[in-house]
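Worked example 3 (structure in, sequence out).
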């Protein structure tokens, strides 16, 4: 099996300090929060504007990487399900996908929301939300 290296482009600065405090999904009461992008990647933010919908790809650095099945949403009443059929943060490669809106831009810091990621979560990439398949 090959090994791949992923370098964070930035980090989440959130009032959520512990995993137990985080909403399961952003739309379930997550706060607006700041993300700070490494200044080396500042040119990559060109074209990003207030009001844009973006997808943040994060690395769930506190998640278990050996979990293969869970009770969805942590509810023991739900049957055990493979993690690839869930949004569990515990998985072999704990990537998070977060659809957020850019609320404010200050240099290489973006206020976005709602975002359920905890403070210190590494940001791996940012992609625009495409409104239709004809966009680049």
């Amino acid at each position: 099996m090959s090994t791949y290296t992923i370098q964070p482009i930035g980090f989440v600065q959130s009032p959520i300090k512990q995993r137990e405090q985080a909403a399961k999904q952003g739309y379930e009461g997550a706060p607006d929060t700041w993300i700070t992008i490494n200044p080396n990647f500042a040119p990559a933010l060109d074209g990003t504007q207030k009001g844009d919908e973006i997808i943040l790809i994060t690395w769930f650095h506190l998640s278990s990487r050996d979990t293969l099945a869970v009770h969805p949403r942590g509810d023991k009443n739900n049957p055990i399900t493979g993690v690839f059929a869930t949004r569990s943060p515990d998985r072999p490669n704990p990537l998070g996908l977060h659809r957020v809106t850019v609320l404010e831009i200050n240099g290489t810091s973006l206020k976005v929301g709602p975002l359920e990621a905890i403070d210190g979560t590494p940001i791996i990439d940012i992609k625009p939300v495409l409104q239709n398949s004809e966009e680049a």
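Notes: Strands lie at 10-13, 33-37, 53-59, 69-70, 81-82, 95-106, 109-113, 122-128. Residues 15-128 form a domain with the Elongation Factor Tu (Ef-tu); domain 3 fold (CATH 2.40.30.70).
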